[in-house]
Amino acid sequence: MSANPLYTADQGVAEKLALRLIERADIRAAREAARAGLVADKLATTLDGRALLDRALDQWVLALAVREANGDVADPRVTWNVNNAPRDWYGHVYLGAAVAIDNPDNINREIPITGEGHYEIDVRFAENPPQFSVVIEMEPEHHAGLGRNVGALTLQDLLAGADNDRRVTITVGPKATGGKFHLQTEPGRIQIYTRDSMADWTQQPAEVSVRRLDPPAGHTPRTEDEIAAVVIDDMPAWVKFWATFKDDFLGFPEPNRLVGPNGREGGWGYLAGGRFRLEDGEALIVTLDPADSYYTGFQISDPWTISPDPMYRVVSLNKAQATPNPDGTVTYVLSPIDPGVANWIDTDALAEGWMLTRWQGVPKTADPTTFIREVRVARLDGLDAELSADVPRIDLAGRRAQIIERARLHNTRTRDAAWAK
Q1: C-alpha 151: how far from chain center
Q2: DSSP assigned state of 409
Q3: Which of 214, 231, 273, 408 has the most beta carbons within 10 angstroms of its beta carbon?
Q4: How far is the C-alpha of 250 from the C-alpha of 271, rounded, in Å?
Q5: Which residues neighbour 146 within 8 Å (Cβ) at sequence distance 6 or greater?
Q6: Would you call 218 exposed, middle or buried from its count of C-beta atoms within 10 A (0-12, 13-18, 19+)?
Q7: Tell me, what's the pLDDT at 1?
Q8: Residue segments in the chain with a per-residue pLDDT below the cut of 70
Q9: Is 369 left (phi over 0), alpha (psi -120 to 50) or beta?
Q10: Judging by beta carbons within 10 Å of its beta carbon (0-12, 13-18, 19+), is residue 312 exposed, middle or buried?
Q11: CATH number of this structure's domain 250-414, picked from the four choices 2.40.50.140, 2.60.120.1600, 3.40.50.720, 3.40.1280.10
């Protein structure tokens, strides 16, 4: 058995099945039919949109295949899904699979259940755990949409009731009474999501497992052909939803402003986001207050809402990676070339895209109206004059060291070795 909490026997089975599924002729035909709709999208008439169309489509299709590979509510497993960086691990190469501005700080795992069933989820936290949340959502038909949140628990909730080995059991079911930590369900298909949000890439995700307490009698596993048929049936609505998600996310705001912060359903954090659009020679300056949150992170994505490679480009910064100003705020500069500012967000030469910031584990006394301090466009050649001398800078050697360390730490996710080594 792997010593890596992300690679379980169930994870390996789901990934290998999903990789077979996306190579099937019938599923590839469904992909090509979905692609025809993307080519007609207005975004596909732009250089960035056309160049990145197939990358976005491939990420969406693999994310759907993994979800359906673990789609049996009678015998659910825990699978890591929605992570856009490819990985070469445990004997196979797994390509990126992502939707909706995937955050490279997040480990997103999925558990499919039915609201009529009874389940237990066991969680064991590391000594220095990432911010953790478990969210229960009513699943839309064909997975085509954002689920309706019907309950959530956070690290702060769970650690308070964990045993001396940092283990805790969450009960899930239709009755109001359950264990110490209980998520009550409604009738219908449900997705449970667990999320480890790493404020530092040396943090180790939790170990998570699930078991159904009342499996139906005489249940038989689905065949690969049956699973493929569901993927094909779901694909048109799934791709259409994620292709159009960009058109109304946060109201499709005017570029170079942040909308929010908006509270997350269930009270597990805040999110603010918007679009950036930069002309040649421009940069975007964003100053935010982390507000003493357990986790904060800032990132960008391409216009399809798929992030560039997070290992070798500084397309995101979390709490440990960002250098604060003397007053505790953090100033980021988004630009296609390195401006020599410590908190550079590399736009990967995109003319436009999305930006998103998250606060989780927020103190109850924090005032979200003060989280966003500044968002403005500036000329790169005049950036030093635009920024206070207190805003941290970095030289070329420092940047090189930052990127090398970023790649090294990201790579630990796919290894058995201790994450901090």
Answers
A1: 19
A2: H
A3: 231
A4: 10
A5: 137, 140
A6: exposed
A7: 55
A8: 1, 266, 417-421
A9: alpha
A10: middle
A11: 2.60.120.1600
